[in-house]
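Human: If only I could read backbone structure tokens as easily as an amino acid sequence. Take your time, and here it is.
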Amino acid sequence: MIVTVHPSVIKGNILAPTSKSSMQRACAAALLHDGETTIANPGKSNDDVAAIDVIQKLGAVVEIQNEKVKIKNTGTGAVSGEMNCGESGLGIRMFTPLAALSAQPITINGTGSLLTRPMDFFDEIFPQLGIAITSNGGKLPLQIQGPLQPNDITIDGSLSSQFLTGLLMAYGKAATKPSTITVRNLKSKPYIDLTLQVMKHFGYDVVNNNYESFTINPKPLNATPISYTVEGDWSGGAFLVVAGAIAGGIIIKGLDVQSTQADKKILEAVRDSGALLSITDTQIEVAPPLSLKPFQFDATDCPDLFPPLVALAAYCNGTTVIQGVSRLAHKESNRGLTLQDEFGKMGIKIDLQDDLMLVYGGTGVKGATVHSRHDHRIAMACAVAALKADGDTTIEEAEAINKSYPDFYEHIKQLGASVEEIKNVKL
């Protein structure tokens, strides 16, 4: 799909999308729960759909009705010889340990960029847990056979906290005695907070020892029905916040300012840029000032914010410095280089210096033809930057947004953005 965004002024109210981070964790917890789970406000992104498919492959019975998802656990065990996590990095890292709870052999696979992401973590850790594993040189597909046996282990958390999320949930289900996971160099701690919040809601007892280790205690059998409401998504909502700071003002509803989601830190960057910001328990109002100023921001624990931060920095009069570039190499694209290339087409110079990204804003954003690189956040960042560009911006492979925020173009159109969509036509 090709999307053209014309320079626009936006205004009005919009409801933020649902959090795929929250939705996928809820699906995992529901798969492990002894009774029935009802998930309210479920997501519908590609990653959410993949999570529903995976838990069905692992034995859950799923019923979707009236904007709710009902999930019944029939005993964790592969009912298919293969599960496919689509392009979801969280999905592959979280559900693989859960699949290993079963003694049945299963092949773990994915699509797109997930096929090139490193999975050496499982090659190193799984044999310590009694799991047989064969990988494709540290990449997908993986062939595994459990059952997982919780042991006291030490892991490296520098690549992604998502590996830890999967182990915490699997240990929670399998633990017959207290077991401890020690973590070195843990990144993205707020995402572990979200995992622990979901696990607590489902009755698990995990002790967080200052993020240096986690002790998982056995959970008694409990078949009591559980209801879980998926919260609004700060990752997708960040693009709306930045759009308001650039081309607003707008009012965004459905985002919990008390959330454990890492990406709520977008509010700090927007405030530091001088944008007009008003926050209450029920809504966020954001509007552009007379002039946006450059800011400094550490995105090490919230690397998904790099794309909206770059869109914001492009309009700031000076050099913005963002830390945490090392976290960007193994996303849907190598986001540091991709942002440099695609925003370069729009006239914005970006330098990468070790772990720092320098964005030279205030030089004028030009309308251009850009490419999503099959990365949902790159597509949205370019679209947001296009709202005040000098000329029209055309985004190729613009359907990449479906991975996390399928309603994005429709939402900015509801706010008044002029957006044309041309579906791919096969002759």
Remarks:
- The chain has a mean pLDDT of 95.
- The radius of gyration is 21 Å.
